[in-house]
């Protein structure tokens, strides 16, 4: 059941709440007996909530936030809330709709614990494989030096190549071992994007829209995923080609678009573009950017034509906000 509360924006006091909210808190509020809205939050969350409300009061967009409230008995309960502003008789009010997310938080905590244990197992196993692979390469190198026949050398070279592939796969696993191991966070997209391209050769970027102020809820490896995406775009067509970045909203969510004039991706290859291909290096492999985004239900696809490279990231409604 949704928890609903009405806040008077002029003084941030609660003037009404539904039965579900009052039952959870252990008290109620009315226009005749308004309560300080910020009093329902523990001290450590109050400053953040005040900043959130002040920003929301100046924004036309609906705002969302995960925080913690305190009941009359002192129990702390995690909630997810959204705020929408309305005007009634020339007075502004904020309508808060919240959900108790205790069960979800418990499940997330259990999942993260399991993922951390798996990551430890992967780490130990991977290091063991790396050590053994190093030994195998050393023996193969010795065999290559003492080989007397071209057939022997050919077989050894093939084994060396296979061993190098194994090492490359291990490096991929190391790079992305923490994917999903920590809880996703709200990230300023423009900042993450700038950090991502800072690892690459200079790229000419043209912004059709202002990305500043957009936050998206994504895995902590978002920066690395965007780096691989921009590296792929950089390598297509002329390296000096301009990349245009823009965004737009629709009923489906937020669309973030990257475009470059370049020979496009053939329609038959668009579906396989994001599939795992161990033969490709990181600059050619878009498998990980899709996997990183999908953790928080963000989609990516290539939608260009024969003369344009165009990647579109679709962030669902609940996965972005404006700050």
Number of helices: 7
Structural class: alpha+beta
Strand content: 25-35%
Beta strands, count:
14
- CATH level-1 class of the largest domain: Alpha Beta
CATH fold type of the largest domain: Heat Shock Protein 90
Oligomer: single chain
Largest sheet: 6 strands, antiparallel
Please estimate the helix content.
25-40%
- The general outline is elongated
CATH architecture assignment name of the largest domain: 2-Layer Sandwich
Tell me the span between the first and last alpha carbons.
28 Å
Radius of gyration: 26 Å
Q: For this structure, what is the CATH homologous superfamily of the largest domain?
A: Histidine kinase-like ATPase, C-terminal domain
Number of separate domains: 3
- Average pLDDT for all residues: 86
Strand order of the largest sheet: 3-2-1-6-5-4
Task: Give a written overview of the molecule.
The protein is α+β, with helices and mostly antiparallel strands and 323 residues long. It has 3 domains: 3-100, PAS domain (Beta-Lactamase), CATH 3.30.450.20; 104-175; 185-322, Heat Shock Protein 90 (2-Layer Sandwich). It is 38% helix and 28% strand. The model has no long low-confidence stretch (mean pLDDT 86).
């Amino acid at each position: 059941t949704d928890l609903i509360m009405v806040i008077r924006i002029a003084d941030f006091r609660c003037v009404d709440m539904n039965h579900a909210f009052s039952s959870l808190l252990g008290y109620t509020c009315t226009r005749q007996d308004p309560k300080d809205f910020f009093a329902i939050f523990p001290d450590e969350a109050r400053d953040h909530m005040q900043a959130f409300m002040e920003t929301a009061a100046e924004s036309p967009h609906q705002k969302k936030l995960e925080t913690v409230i305190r009941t009359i008995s002192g129990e702390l309960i995690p909630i997810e809330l959204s705020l929408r502003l309305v005007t009634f008789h020339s007075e502004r009010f904020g309508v808060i709709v919240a959900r108790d997310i205790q069960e979800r938080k418990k499940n997330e905590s259990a999942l993260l614990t399991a993922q951390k244990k798996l990551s430890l197992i992967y780490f130990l196993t991977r290091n063991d494989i790396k050590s053994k692979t190093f030994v195998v390469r050393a023996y193969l190198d010795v065999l290559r030096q003492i080989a007397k026949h071209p057939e022997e050398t050919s077989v050894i070279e093939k084994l060396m190549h296979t061993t190098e592939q194994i090492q490359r796969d291990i490096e991929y696993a190391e790079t992305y071992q923490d994917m999903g191991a920590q809880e996703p966070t709200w990230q300023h997209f423009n900042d993450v994007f700038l950090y991502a391209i800072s690892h690459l050769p200079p790229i000419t970027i043209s912004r059709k829209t202002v990305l500043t102020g957009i936050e998206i809820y994504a895995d902590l490896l978002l920066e690395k995923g965007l780096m691989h995406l921009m590296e792929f775009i950089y390598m297509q067509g002329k390296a000096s080609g301009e990349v245009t970045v823009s965004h737009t909203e629709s009923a489906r969510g937020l669309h973030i678009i990257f475009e470059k004039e370049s020979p496009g991706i053939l329609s038959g290859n668009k579906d396989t573009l994001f599939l795992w291909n161990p033969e490709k290096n990181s600059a050619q492999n878009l498998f990980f950017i899709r996997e990183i985004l999908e953790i928080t239900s963000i989609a990516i696809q290539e939608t260009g034509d024969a003369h344009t490279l165009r990647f579109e990231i679709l962030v669902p409604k609940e996965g972005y906000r404006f700050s």
